[in-house]
Design brief:
By secondary structure, the chain is of the alpha+beta class. It is built from 7 helices and 8 strands, in the order αββββαβααβαββαα. Strands 4-3-2-1-5-8-7-6 form an 8-stranded mixed beta sheet, sandwiched between helices. Helix 1 (5-23) runs parallel beside helix 6, helix 2 (78-87) packs parallel to helix 5 (141-147) and helix 3 (100-108) packs across helix 6.
């Protein structure tokens, strides 16, 4: 199947994002899914049952915003992606992966409403608050519904006991959010093992949050 030049560029970005996610251990085997919404509202999404390490442009599936399958065998978690696109007009790309340390936080601390963000300025400046979305069964409409209270205000979210999701205005933004999330979670885990993370002073937190608000919602 041939693709117009601008579509081919995006599809190659999606495939490269899949390979980067796999290389950084942010997903394994056929886990996770990545998608992009084109200007005509068609959505390209990774297929079901295909290892992200060996993805090819020709493997990509296409669906409509209403969920109609246009071509290929789209991911079984497409309902979650569609929920994001419907709730977030600015969303052009969605990355869902299984970052190990991020998931571990939701397993070990089921009472957490959000990732601790009082210790590291990078968390506040690059992503803002990162909620932990209550558990919903993967692959069901309930997973998309569980996201809705957090959209469009949050672009980066931990999915309790399941993984994480980041949406952005480009494939790169959505990918980098996932990379940053796991890096932050690893640092926070190390701090806990060393005796616990210490919070920044309240006035510094206020200043950082003001800077974040001024720079806009993009994941950095």
């Amino acid at each position: 199947m041939g693709f117009p030049g601008h579509e081919l560029k995006v599809l190659r970005e999606l495939v490269e994002a899949c390979r980067r996610l796999h290389a950084r251990n942010l997903l394994a085997a056929a886990d996770g899914n990545v998608s992009f919404r084109f200007a005509d509202a068609r959505i390209a999404i990774t297929p079901t049952g295909v290892s992200k390490a060996g993805m090819a442009v020709e493997d990509m599936a296409f669906v409509t915003l209403e969920g109609e399958i246009l071509s290929g065998q789209p991911s079984g978690e497409r309902l979650m992606h569609l929920a994001v696109y419907r709730a977030c007009p600015a969303a052009r790309a969605v990355v869902h992966a299984h970052p190990p340390t991020a998931i571990a936080w939701s397993l070990a601390r089921p009472g957490l409403a959000h990732l601790p963000d009082e210790a590291m300025p990078e968390v506040i400046l690059a992503a803002g608050r990162i909620p932990i979305v209550p558990y919903a069964r993967p692959g069901t409409a309930a997973m998309g519904e569980a996201l809705l209270p957090f959209l469009p205000a949050h672009r980066l979210l931990i999915l309790a006991r399941h993984g994480a999701l980041c949406w952005g205005e480009s494939v790169e933004e959505a990918y980098l959010g996932m990379e940053r999330l796991e890096h932050v979670c690893q640092i926070l885990k190390a701090a806990e093992e060393l005796g616990g993370a210490t919070a920044l002073p309240a006035e510094e937190l206020d200043a950082l949050r003001a800077l974040r608000a001024a720079q806009g919602p993009r994941i950095l």
